[in-house]
Design goal:
Strand order of the largest sheet: 3-4-15-12-17-10-7
Pfam family, one: 2OG-FeII_Oxy_2
Helix content: 10-25%
Strand content: 15-25%
Number of helices: 8
Number of strands: 19
CATH topology: Jelly Rolls
Bound molecules: 2-oxoglutaric acid
CATH class: Mainly Beta
Distance between the termini: 42 Å
Structural class: alpha+beta
Order of helices and strands: HEEHEEHEEEEEHHEEEEHEEHEEHEE
Radius of gyration: 20 Å
Protein name: Alpha-ketoglutarate-dependent dioxygenase alkB-like protein
Shape: globular
CATH architecture: Sandwich
Number of domains: 1
Length: 378
Amino acid sequence: MSRKRTIDAFFGAASAGAPEPKKPCDIATGSPETHLDGLNTNGNGLKELDAVIAPGTAARKSDDYSTHPAYPFPIPHLPSALAAELPSWPASLGRVINDQPDLDLLYFEPYVVRGGGSARSLFEFLRSELPFYRVEYDINRGGTSTHIRTPRWTTVFGLDDTSRFSSSSSSGGGGGSGGGEDITKILDVKTGRDVSADKFYTRYKPRPIPKCLDDLRLSAQVAAGCEFNFCLVNYYASGADSISFHSDDERFLGPLPAIASFSLGARRDFLLKHKPIPPPPGGEHTEAMRNATSKPLKLPLASGDMVLMRGLTQANWLHSIPKRTGKNATDGGRINITFRRALVKPGTDNYYNYNVGTGPVYKWDAVSREMRPWKKIL
Ligand SMILES: O=C(O)CCC(=O)C(=O)O
């Protein structure tokens, strides 16, 4: 966690309007991944769907895909069996976990049906069909620059509350992209003015949540009782991939953010611990403060599970997915999907910066069974 962010998070010292600090959660665990140059992450969109449909794949109609100029390639809608099942989710009632100070979780075990292979097929579908990135960035701490290689695959879709995609009126804040309409512009939600050239929308081109993820967003909104406009996806290819302790407490999420977090694929431990409580100025921890210190929590998240983190949780708790070693180091991978609501434009720039970045786009290769740099086939 960056020094600045740590201090901001604990003491609320960030000044309004300043750019959001870098995402801090990868500092301790950046893995020495090779950086591959030369591919363009911001494709110009595809006009010819045939170019990206592998030979021998059953032909899909073009309206079975979400398309957008900022997508490197079209993204298919959910397979029909999953789409038919989705209205019956969550598959179980959520269990409230709020027996520790400031903690408020709703834990669905599972949310996506596990029996019958639905969670597995959703995992395989998303791993195959989404564009992924291995983001690198530099941070400055005490005058020292550190290069961070994000130790997992990431991708993101969505747009903050202040704006909407030009044809998104029917699809919520994230602007689900259901069909082949023209969705090139970003409009101010209040005035309808074209804000595509805003500085927070030009470093990276925002892209609507594709229908396959937007269907899940709509379901999560009902279960959570709140709205989401961003979808972040992590792919942990093996036990070597991780996310270190952090909280999703950026100011652009507002004071009590709710985050719906889905797990698909391999089981991984989700660790939570209370943030350290700073002693009063010039004083020591009182007995009451010491008693408020909570026990760390470990949730062994399985495929199909969903944890809703809400209330005071992000303001007071840190969470992580630690690396796994030994026999669990390679276990087929895990996908995490989080739905969140960014209130203001800096949130959009921040999410694309740390989950898409400027490096190459990767796509799952079913033959080599790994993420490979993706090139547009002309
Ligand atoms: O993979 C997970 O379950 C956690 C992901 C997470 O903490 C994040 O994306 O901020």
